[in-house]
Amino acid sequence: FDIPSKETFVITTTNRTEITEDNFSKLVHDGVTLYLLKSVDQMLLLATKERIEFLPHYDTLVKSGMYEYYASEGQNPLPFALAELIDNSLSATSQNTGIRSIQIKLLFDDSQGKPAVAVIDNGSGMTSKQLNNWAVYRLSKFTRQGDFESDHSGYVRPLPVPRSLNSDISYFGVGGKQAVFFVGQSARMISKPATSQDVHELVLSKEDF
User: Fold this and answer.
1) What sections of the protein cross the membrane (predicted)?
2) Which pLDDT belongs to residue 76?
């Protein structure tokens, strides 16, 4: 890397966890993205990209939420799809000590791009690892194993109270991905973890698939 011998540096994960001799074997594996920085809190000089490798289930394209939503017992399926889209925001803000802010915006300004549904919240934010896990088809937030659980700030499934109060409003269990492809053609998630200065962005597009 052409680093002068007298210069100090650190190697970190995308979540700004410094790689040390003690945690190397746990954090470093094939495909992991690392930063070489002068310090853990150094500002990134430019945007970085991390390619997520996973094989999407064919249902993502073939069904795209149609079967589950059109089988909604004669009810209008659109509210259920929108409910799926704000489920992440309800979970992310459930531990807020202050105000919980969740905004739902319908965007129709052609000069800003195609029509879109935007869900914005002031929750804890997601790391690149958490965004990666969200992208995996049919990987429920209640059944994710391994790294995700330890990287989810101690998420505990809410007590069995009415759906609207416990952030567990997922009606069909198909998650945000099928809701996205039921409503539109792509998803863009932009998140900044509360404990990090970095902003992470995930794009899932039917066209790209």
Assistant:
1) none
2) 77
Q: Is the dihedral of CA 178, 180, 186, 187 positive or negative?
A: negative
Contact 10, 40 (CB under 8 A): yes
Whether the pLDDT of residue 42 is over 80: the answer is yes
**Residue 154 pLDDT > 60:** no
DSSP 3-state assignment of 100? coil
How many whole angstroms separate alpha carbon 179 and alpha carbon 189?
14
Domain 58-146+160-205 has CATH 3.30.565: yes
Q: Worst-scoring range by mean pLDDT, 49-63, 71-85, 91-105, 160-174?
A: 160-174
Greatest extent of the chain over all pairs of C-alpha atoms, in Å: 70
Q: Residue 47: what residue type? A: A
Q: Which two tokens stand for residue 89?
A: 């925001």
β-strand 116-121 against 102-107: which pairing, if any? antiparallel
Q: pLDDT (tens digit, 9 = 90+) per residue, 99-120? A: 999 999 999 988 877 899 999 9
Q: Could you tell me the CA-to-CA distances from 182 to 24, 38, 48, 99, 119 in Å, in that order?
A: 41, 45, 30, 31, 16
- DSSP for 114-142 reads S-EEEEEE-S----HHHHHHHHSTT--TT
